[in-house]
Structures are given as C-alpha cells and as structure tokens.
Amino acid sequence: MTVCWLNGQIVPREKATVSIFDHGVLYGDGVFEGIRFYNNRVFRLESHLQRLHDSAAALALDMPFSLEQLAIAITDVIEAFHLADGYIRLVITRGEGRLGINPFNCSTPTVFIIADELALVEDSIKAEGAKLIVASIRRTPSSSLEPRIKSLNYLNNIQALMEAKYANADEAIMLNHEGKIAEGSADNVFIVKNNIVKTPPTIDGALEGITRGVVIDVARELGLTMLECSLTPYDIYTADECFLTGTGMELLPVREIDGRSIAHCPGETYQKIYHGFRGLIERETASLFC
C-alpha cells in the first residue's frame, strides 16, 4: 500500500494530486530527495534533509515546512506504511502559477511525500553484476546546472538510460563535456584498481550522493585507500572492479561496460565495502525494541 502525504496531511493515493499549473509539472521547477528506511527508521535522514534544504536554497525556493516538520511528516508516513523497509520520495515544487517560466508568479510551493516499495534492480543483476554502456548523452555542465542541486530536471539522465535499454544494457555512464566520467543515470560510479578505490569528484559533474558519501567513509574505515579523482572510460575498461551506488539501488557490482568484461565481479573489495555498508545500516536503524 502506497502512502501519500500532501501539503501537511496524509491523503488517499487517488487524492494525492497536484495542479496542472504547478511549475514542477510545467517546467520541472523543484527539488527532491530519495530516502531509504529500514526497520521503520530512516537511514541518514539529517543528511537528506540538509541536502534538500541546500538544493531549495540554491534555487531560491521557499520551504513552507521546516526540516523538523518534514522529519515528523516522514515519521508519520512510515508509521502508516505496511512494511518495515521501504523508500521515501520527498518533493518540493515551485507551486501553482501562471503560464510562463517566471518563478515569481508562484505563491505557495507544493510539498509531497510518498512511501512505497522500490525494486530498481532485479536480484539476478545484483548477484551477477550490471551491464553498462557509456552513453552519448552528456551530463549537464556544472556551469549550466550545479550538480549538487538535486532538482527535478532529469531529462538528459532519462535519455541516457533509454540509450542503455536500447542497447540491452542495465545502466548508462554519463560523461561531462570534457569526456570525464560524471555519474550513472541515477547513481555514482566507483572503480577499484590495484587495491585503490576511486570515484569521480563532484566537480566533474557527479551528484554528491548520500550513499556515495557513506561508501567513501566505509572504505576508509576498512583501511582501504580511497581517492576522489577524475576518471575516463579507459579507467573503467581497465579496472579490476567497478560498482555503482545510490539510495535506490544501494550498491551494485558491474560485470561489463561497452562489451568489455570487468576483471572481477563481484570483486573482493566490493564485497568488503558492501558488507560494511550493510552492517552500518543495521547498526543505525536497529529496532529500538531488540
């Protein structure tokens, strides 16, 4: 059962609607967060809410609810949900306004929260590894749209994923306009080479993913050498291991990119990080009644 919260109250799914004049619908003017909860407890809620706040501030988008109020709303939604584990989508749009892109025509932002199950990746792909391509669609330049803003503008990401699906692949790697790896269509990219774990820096166009940050911390806590450095397709083609991270998929090993097999999938380093990641989730979201 999907649970929906709209502008301050939980409403039936069929009544969880927004106006066709909402600028989030008309122009993609808004921000969002994808959030996981386990054992009825949110994982890294403070980090998600802070990023939401910062994204909204960067777009001069007023938040009609405080972060504390949104945290309470998320708790209420989780309590109304039918499973202990699930996915939260929290969205703030510019709100209803007149036609035309002028954001000052909108008076009150729209806020909604959705709790649902999420299965982005099939179990077989999680076990065997994903098949990737390097997409021809490039990441929006940071000079045009700051990558740290988690906005509703995802059209180029959608096109990149479509390109992957047409090629019978599971996911696409997006490059920036300098040919450096930015990210996947909805995830961050990691490789392992000579026991060194590497991921592109946000300056190359990568979203500052919450899961990305957790994985960086886990890798360092495990004593692994962890670098944020520019990467190109060559680095993945010649990597010992490769994996993707994101709130929805968590961690996903990669077995192939552009027809080239990755040497180890799932590799030893990936498995160490994965188990460390899962252990962290269990510690931070353990039931209060255990």
How is this structure best described in words?
- This protein has eight helices and 15 strands.
- It folds into two domains: 3-116, D-amino Acid Aminotransferase, Chain A, domain 1, CATH 3.30.470.10; 123-282, Alpha-Beta Barrel (D-amino Acid Aminotransferase, Chain A, domain 2), CATH 3.20.10.10.
- Strand 1 (3-6) and strand 2 (9-11) form a beta hairpin.
- By secondary structure, it is of the alpha+beta class.
- Strands 7, 8, 9, 10, 11, 12, 13, 14 and 15 form a nine-stranded mixed sheet that branches. The protein has a six-stranded antiparallel sheet with strand order 2-1-6-5-3-4.
- It is globular and about 55 Å long.
- The mean pLDDT is 95.
Task: Describe this structure in a few short sentences.
The chain is α+β, with helices and mostly antiparallel strands and 290 residues long. The chain has helices at 23-27, 45-58, 67-80, 123-128, 155-166, 210-221, 233-237, 268-284, and strands spanning 3-6, 9-11, 30-38, 41-42, 86-93, 110-116, 130-134, 171-175, 181-184, 188-193, 196-199, 225-228, 241-246, 250-257, 260-261. The model has no long low-confidence stretch (mean pLDDT 95).
